[in-house]
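Carbonic anhydrase: structure, please.
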Amino acid sequence: MSDFLKRVSNFREEIFPSHSGLYRKLAREGQQPQALMISCADSRVMPEVITQSGPGELFVCRNAGNIVPPFSTMNGGVSSAIEYAVVALGVRDIVVCGHSDCGAMKGLCNHELLAPMPNVAAWLRHSQAAYSIVCEAYPEELSSQDKVRAVAMENVVIQLDHLRTHPSVAAKLATNDISLHGWFFDIETGEVQVYDGAEKRFLVIEGEKPLPVAVSGRPTPHIMDDPFMALAAE
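Here you go.
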């Protein structure tokens, strides 16, 4: 811990003074982050570094496996962070970011590793669908490394589906006030791939091209017939 304390001291003495105006503004006016990022707790994956975000720009929720439990199954920290970011902070974008060499996904692929960690095993049930997809729909001859990578990518898509079950997110999607994004960070190369919901695959970010969106909002719903809509308006 002594190393961390030295860095804290260095931050306060060397780094903070040049940004003190920004911190005073944030303390006075509060935060207005541009997006919520749900990422893995892996120490090698740092959302603020990957996105080059400064203080107040990114609301971050981290957990093992970048998991979003379906709304009906858990009222916990992840669900609360999502609700707060959407309702209180008004973020217009949510990113689920998976990554290569994910320990949580390795646990899914090698269940014996989870035997001494019952809480982790229970948590990873929210990613079981990703593992099942890879087992059923991918080639059997995948190497163990490629299998973990495939599960990690499928897991991002599964968690995006879970996100849509949260009432605050569903409501904003219905009014076209929010977009959902799936990212995959390669630790070794620094490359970020983005999930294209229209093409159903991950694409490499290229220059200034518009980023694909996993799930976008839609215009005002037209599910009900006009007579019912008229009644609702009265």
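Notes: Residues 228-234 have pLDDT under 50 and may be disordered.
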